[in-house]
Amino acid sequence: MGIRNVMVVGSGLMGSGISQVIASAGFEVIMVDQKMEYAERGLSNISVNLSRRVSKGSLPENEKEQIISRITTADDLHAGKHVDLVIEAVPERLELKKKTFAELDQMVQREAILATNTSSLSIASIGSSTKRPEKVIGMHFFSPVPIMKLVEIIPSIITDRDTIHAVEEFSKQIGKETIFASDYPGFTVNRLLVPFMNEAIYLVFEGNNPEDIDRGMRLGANHPIGPLELADQVGLDVLLDVLESMYEGFNDSKYRPCPLLKRMVESGKFGKKSGSGFYTYNR
Ligand SMILES: NC(=O)c1ccc[n+]([C@@H]2O[C@H](COP(=O)([O-])OP(=O)(O)OC[C@H]3O[C@@H](n4cnc5c(N)ncnc54)[C@H](O)[C@@H]3O)[C@@H](O)[C@H]2O)c1
User: Distance (Å, rounded) from C-alpha 92 to C-alpha 249?
Assistant: First the structure.
């Protein structure tokens, strides 16, 4: 049986983007956050995104209303007890993810698949906090979710075939392309991209100008966006979390986060979402 109803846990940058894409593909989705006001904020971000498409003429107004009507907000995981698939998008902290999965395992029907949008944490470790580790899998979306085509699918070594197949099918149904990646820190895309952004931050740390670094990679390597612009977009706090789990996971100094990145995060410079990172933004 295919996936019909979905719950997304966390309604921040990723959770709201994932919910928008799922609802846009015609599925019902429950979007849960710690507090109702956070979930409502996620929904209003979706509404703003869709309105932008309406004003550009790429989405009819009535379709926007239909998409919004397929999203229900909640502040309690119980709201999703009958769903077929849960996609978790809470902050990148192993203990928080494990606690969330242990709760989901208690509350959501036994047959449901529990997926995590983690960027770097072990799927096996998250799965071990449930009594259904064979139904736990990584579904790694990329930001901004409505635009980026990829979902990286990460089975743990004990995820079963039916779960892998169902998640692959569902990803296609919501208009995404998939690749498979092994369950090691950073998977495939971040394993390459995150050390690259960290190295660009070391260049700033050593006195280079962010604009020069980004222009260099745009003009000299044909990258569509510079590494520091990308880091600001991803969120410097998220980037630091991913680097730290790669550093710990491989126990290898090549993943050591740049001290400047740590200082910026400690100072509340999280990039675009906080209005300030390597560049400043109007919020
Ligand atoms: N930002 C990116 O570009 C990106 C890309 C791919 C994957 N990810 C991953 O997605 C996940 C979420 O990242 P984000 O950027 O959306 O973070 P975010 O901080 O924007 O959103 C996290 C949301 O989770 C909510 N939350 C916290 N604890 C919760 C709980 N116990 N129950 C329900 N909701 C809870 C927060 O209130 C917040 O709304 C992380 O694992 C991150 O590594 C992020």
Answer: 14
